[in-house]
Amino acid sequence: MADERSPGAGRAQTLALQGVANAIVRVLLRVPVVSRGIGKRLVTLYVVGRRSGKRYTVPVAYTRHEGALLIGTPFGWGHNLRTGEPVEVRFQGRRRVADVVVHTDEDAVVRDYAVIARDNRNFAGFNKIGFAANGDPDPADLHLAWAAGARSFHLRLR
């Protein structure tokens, strides 16, 4: 079967006005009462650029899985997280420290992206992951996400 995907298939892309949306979400995640609602799916990461020293404040979706917060991204800020180096997060309105385990190998990323996609259809759509008739994420789409640079992170809150 020929692959009829567009050249950007498998790649997540930022949305129009993503910066504005992120700024609004960051503020909402700081409000304790509001953060209890939207914080059931979102966490803010405080990431420092490894070379530039630039500070990134990134709201991202997470899935609770095996005692950790599971996050996936293909975007550059993810390259600044390292296994064994803690990261600051805002989780349910409170700023905390989390230990990080980074996965970049295909098997782990595909497995983690499947878990996140099953839990969060918005994540799946954003990352162009379709679903089979039985409800499982499409293995080809999961592979394309990994091939396009996706990585996954397990965060354990302290």
TrEMBL record:
What protein does this entry describe?
Deazaflavin-dependent oxidoreductase (Nitroreductase family)
Give the source species. Actinoplanes palleronii
Q: Which domain of life is it from?
A: Bacteria
Pfam families, per this entry? F420H2_quin_red (PF04075)
User: What InterPro entries does its record include?
Assistant: F420H2_quin_Rdtase, Split_barrel_FMN-bd
Identify the Gene3D superfamilies for this entry: Electron Transport, Fmn-binding Protein, Chain A
